[in-house]
Design goal:
Largest sheet: 7 strands, mixed
Bound molecules: guanosine-5'-diphosphate, magnesium ion
Oligomer: single chain
Strand order of the largest sheet: 6-5-4-1-3-2-7
Main location: membrane
GO molecular function, one term: GTP binding
Subcellular location: Endomembrane system
Keywords: GTP-binding, Hydrolase, Lipoprotein, Magnesium, Membrane, Metal-binding, Methylation, Nucleotide-binding, Prenylation
Number of helices: 4
Family: Belongs to the small GTPase superfamily. Rheb family.
């Protein structure tokens, strides 16, 4: 199969590991060691082609360690995660994207912006509209997810597919 590498980036505790584990292993982890970085692989069939998708769950803990060179280089796309209950994590997504652009020298990169913890609606600090506006500005998909309730967790493959119906997760 063809291969694709995707990095999942965002402020600490926005739910990156929870999203990746829910997507790859179909369960929710209540607590996952925050500094472990790991890579998961999924095989996806899209428009007749099989793709082996490597998903790197990053574990940077602050603005300086969130994006290191090995996260930014040789990636086919980025899943940028914030929590809808945290304004600072939303701001961090912008900082991370700027760093990726700086690092790669590109004017835009393939990314999906994910607002996780959609189940925490009473603690909401970022409206769905604000999330969508950012996506329009960057011309990328945006989606709200709940890793906890397994809602919209298929976000990762929006990166290289334009149709969910045509996409099949094989293993
Ligand atoms: P990471 O540092 O970005 O990898 O974040 P984790 O995946 O370790 O999650 C941080 C905390 O948020 C943990 O306590 C998770 O159980 C919790 N969490 C993750 N996703 C969700 C979600 O969708 N909803 C709620 N309510 N909590 C979540
Ligand atoms: Mg983590």
């Amino acid at each position: 199969p063809k291969s694709r590498r995707i990095a999942v980036l965002g402020a600490r505790a926005v739910g990156k590991s929870s999203l990746v584990i829910q997507f790859c292993e179909n369960h929710f982890v209540e607590s996952y060691y925050p500094t472990i970085e790991s890579t998961f692989t999924k095989t996806i069939r899209y428009k007749g082609y099989e793709y082996s998708v490597e998903i790197m769950d990053t574990a940077g803990q602050d603005e300086y360690s969130i994006l290191s060179s090995h996260h930014a280089s040789s990636m086919d796309g980025y899943v940028l995660v914030y929590s809808i209950s945290s304004r600072s994590s939303f701001d961090m997504v912008k900082i991370i994207r700027d760093k990726i652009l700086d690092f790669t020298g590109l004017e835009s990169v393939p990314c999906v912006v994910v607002g996780n913890k959609s189940d925490l609606s009473i603690q909401r600090q970022i409206s769905p509209e604000e999330g969508k506006e950012l996506g329009e500005q960057w011309q990328c998909s945006t989606i709200e997810t709940s890793a906890k309730h397994d809602e919209n967790v298929y976000c990762c493959w929006f990166l290289f597919t334009d149709s969910e119906e045509q996409t099949q997760v094989l293993k």
